[in-house]
Amino acid sequence: MSGGEKVSPDVTFDPQAEIDPGRALIPSVMRLNERRVDDGFWPKIRRTFASVPFATEALSVWYCAKDEDTPLVAKGMMFAALAYFVLPVDAIPDFIAGLGYTDDAAVFTALLALLGRNLKPKHKDAARRDIERLRGEG
Predict the structure, then answer these.
(1) Is residue 12 one of the residues assigned to a domain?
(2) How confident is the model over 81-116, as pLDDT tens digits?
């Protein structure tokens, strides 16, 4: 193989593209999701907290995913859900009034049903404080 050839010529990668949910716990995918969330979560939550009914839950999940005591598998699934919220491409585009965040809400509802026991009072309290602070800024 020469220096100009791709190792896997049939594989293309678009960091903005959706990720197959079955790959969410692969370490490289987890790192990518964490980067996406680190880059996009706070700007999106600041823009949308007033119109997203699950903003407090999303923030609780963010705090839990960032907590070093949260199990790795739970973190991977949380970052996948948060990345889905952050990415502009999803099943129902967010700009559709009344419907735009229903798919995101469904993802968070499923996530909380599976992993809600990992959310501690400290995560929920931090999320509530942030929502109150954001309301005060707006």
Answers:
(1) no
(2) 999 898 876 656 665 655 677 888 899 999 999 999
The answer to whether residues 34 and 51 touch, using CB atoms and an 8 Å cutoff, is no
CB atoms under 10 Å from CB of 54, counted, come to 18
**Contact of 59 with 127, CB cutoff 8 Å:** yes
Number of domains, the chain: 1
Confidence band (pLDDT; 50, 70, 90) for 10?
low
7 to 2, 27, 128: CA distances (angstroms): 10, 20, 47
The stretch 29-46 carries a mean pLDDT of 87
Distance CA 65, CA 69 (A): 9
How far, in Å, CA of 64 to CA of 118, rounded? 7
Q: Is 126 inside any structural domain?
A: yes
Tell me if 104 sits within 8 A of 41, measured CB to CB.
no
* Angle, alpha carbons 68-72-76 (nearest 5°): 110
In the predicted model, what is the mean pLDDT of residues 117-126?
Answer: 96
Q: Tell me which residue range forms the domain holding 114.
A: 23-137
Alpha carbons 113 and 61: distance in angstroms, whole number: 12
